[in-house]
Amino acid sequence: MKRAKVYKNFINGEWVKSHTGETFKNINPANTDEVVGVFQKSDKRDVNDAVTAAAKAYKKWRLVPAPKRGEILYNIANRLLKEKEQLSQDMTREMGKVLAETRGDVQEAIDMTYYMAGEGRRAFGQTTPSEMNNKFCMSVRQPLGVCGMITPWNFPMAIPAWKMMPALVMGNTVVIKPATDTPLSVANLVKVMGEEGLPPGVVNMVTGSGGSVGSPMMHDKRVECVSFTGSTEIGRKVSEACAPDFKHCHLEMGGKNCIIVMDDADIDLAVDGALWGAFGTTGQRCTASSRIILHKKIYNKFARKFVNRAKAIKIGNGLDEKHQMGPAVSESQMRSVLEYMKIGQQEDGAKLLCGGGRPKGAKYRKGWYTQPTVFGDVVPGMRVFHEEIFGSVTDLIPAKSFDDAIKLANNCAYGLSASIYTQNVNWAFSAMRDVFTGIFYVNAPTIGAETHLPFGGTKHTGNGHREACTQALGVFSEWKSIYVDFSGVIQRAQIDNQ
Ligand code: UN1
User: Fold this and answer.
1) Which residues lie below 8 Å from residue 116, measured CB to CB, with a gap of 6+?
2) Catalytic residue numbers?
3) Which of 215, 322, 332, 488 is 20 to 30 Å from 227 by CA-CA measure?
């Protein structure tokens, strides 16, 4: 067998081995015989090196004019576009989602990079009149310093780009810890970033576990901001680590997103949307449609069509374009999803309408595959109603009326995304107003956010910040209000002009 390539950490513009001398393997979840790459098992010494490099690079990078920083981002985006196909293939090999989706993931990184490149010439502040004569007022953004980033495996390039690009265009420097299941996509991304003109130390990557890399990074006093995407449980730890020093802390966490289908909806359209929302990315999206709330009048009709289509989903290696759904990212992820398939049936007593385990057949033996699984008659109180599963499982939930559907939608600890299928404009607008989430769709599923709108959620999904769009700049900068008095005399605000 061909020996797998060894990847190093990227620190101060160089590829370097970890101090530990140890490595870990990145395994293809669709074929566990294939080692996609060997990565550094780093520890706090490597984090220290990376933060030192980033802190030093910050001194100069913050003074590079923002439009110049933006130009480098343009070059990065152009290069990613050129290499899109290879980057997508690498991503499918390490993460498992099908090629159409990894191309989408790389495209999302490209979109964000172009968008943030443009912010180099905008990043608008305000000018506003003073209440005094001969005084000028403005507000400007200023960078923070070293930003630490901890990114997940489900969007291995898009989410790192969502975090790094706004931070960089604002004038910050970055240390990123990629998910241990998908470090290759981040290694590919930072390689392009280094080669396209980011000065040494401006972006640094350290691979390894949350305990040995993520934790020392977020506790390092020189790190001014931590941006994290992952589980609510770990998000709480990140928040606690940031609190004593009042670091900027941006958290993007769990979801249990719902689609409401009303009795006047175009059922076939809703079935198409729900299938894509529930089983796209093997259900491994924060935005996945994991609860489908159905008006009782169309419950049976929708359930019949939906289950037939779910059973027909073509599962297999994502590199083969005839497959529609790849494996779970790892064995532990698969086991956790299989456990929920049992919990739904045994503990909760929900009705298993299809799936419920691993697909059978020789072709699935070497991958972490799970069946598209649909639970019917799901009601509040069941664990599968409330808990994020992050896999190929969704619930059908009966609703008595529009008001009942809204109540069920809001009966959720999370608040990332939700949607409604209806032709009734009154219901659509009421739902837009009354479902308390950060993202809402009408006649589309809960997935598919675009990079020029704010992304994030309410309740236990987030901590009040947003990624993407200009809102992302807020995470990675501080406002400074500036008053210039050119009157030559003392002018006391709120006093002298009364
Ligand atoms: C995520 O699942 O963490 O809206 C991100 C979407 C994608 C991003 C998902 N554009 O589904």
Assistant:
1) 70, 73, 165, 166, 168, 169, 472
2) 252, 286
3) 332
